Structure formats: C-alpha cells, structure tokens
Amino acid sequence: MSTTAYSFRVDGAKYGVGFGSALAMAISYVNNHSILWAIIDGLLGWLYVIYFALFR
After folding, report:
1. Rounded to an integer, what is the distance from CA 7 to the centroid of its chain?
2. What is the pLDDT of residue 33?
3. Backbone angles phi, psi at 8, to 5 degrees
4. Cβ partners under 8 Å of residue 43, min gap 6
C-alpha cells in the first residue's frame, strides 16, 4: 500500500487575518480618532469588525 500525503497552502488564512486587522484599525481610527484604540482593535481584528457591523 502506498500512502499519499496531501499538502495545501494556508496563504488565504494568513492574508485574511492581515486584512481583518487592517480593516478593524481603519474603522476604529475613523470612529475614535485614537491611535491607541486603533492598535487594540487591530489586535482583535475580525471580532471588532463584526461587533461594529452588528452594533453600530
């Protein structure tokens, strides 16, 4: 029996996290005018983007 190893690239996930963080930072800075809050929200990434979409 031969075993076949399948491999795939996770570049999509890596770029998705980067885009989510950048989007969260941009939204946060426009709303709060604070670099500190933009950094904090950038660390939260997509969580802040979803929060903003649902509750603002």
Report:
1. 25
2. 96
3. -145, 160
4. 21
Rounded CA-CA distance 21/51 in Å is: 13
Picking from 15, 20, 12, the residue whose alpha carbon sits closest to that of residue 51 is 20
pLDDT on residue 22: 93
Q: Is 48 exposed, middle or buried (0-12, 13-18, 19+ CB in 10 A)?
A: buried
In whole angstroms, give the CA distance from residue 22 to residue 29. Answer: 11
Reported pTM: 0.69
Q: Which residues of the chain have pLDDT under 70?
A: 1-17
